[in-house]
Amino acid sequence: MRDDHAARRIPGAVFVDLDTELAAGPSSPGPGGRHPLPGPAALQEVLRAAGVRDDDPDQLVVAYDDRDGSVAARAWWLLRWAGVAPSRVRVLDGGFAAWQQSGLPVAGTDGGAAEPEPLPAGDLVVRSGGMPVVDADGAAALARDGVLLDARAAARYRGETEPVDPRTGHVPGARNTPAAANTGPDGRWLAPEVLAERFRAAGAVPGVPAGAYCGSGINACALVLALEESGTTLPQAPAALYPGSWSEWSADPGRPAATGDRPWVADR
Length: 268
Fold this sequence. Notes:
One of its GO terms (molecular function) is 3-mercaptopyruvate sulfurtransferase activity. By secondary structure, the chain is an alpha/beta fold.
């Protein structure tokens, strides 16, 4: 949250809001889902304000959060989607907690290190399309012909509970790989080989088209990142994101839903 960032942050870090800047504003379930992708012009304004420069190989853009890495992964995904080179974009392993545990300097109103000079406004030109996306039909096709991963908690996938969206269950054919399992108890991302084994168990192997969704398109970005880090998908062919995710799918009464542990069981 903005107040938390003001109180304690990595010196020089720029706050970017999930609901209003990393999405096109919070939306009701329906077309685009609860966290629709921001438009290219709006995203360009946000990233320029953060100081992101265009085609600058010497500038590394690092995203972090104080949660499980999923919000940072959304920023990572949007930077890549905007056309920023993969070599220039990173997510801080372990987030702000790991930074503090390492004894590194912290700035903010709670006291701490002095701030460096603010970055000048950036000049990034957003070239959308740097990361693949699918709509609901594309997600259904991936579930049928490739592998579609559901990043939500297992109880939501099985249809035992649904605290936010209109219906319970999952996209028929999707396989449950909760994003929360990308990280260990210390909040750091699991080793690539451990992630790869997890995804192999779900049917995501090199050469198989893959995609990810979650409740509203945020946690799914963490799966896309984890898939790439694991080597399951190549940087030249990342997994596709279904941005509307379950919030869009479940709002359409014409879309079937499955329940239970198995991908195709109890279609309705």
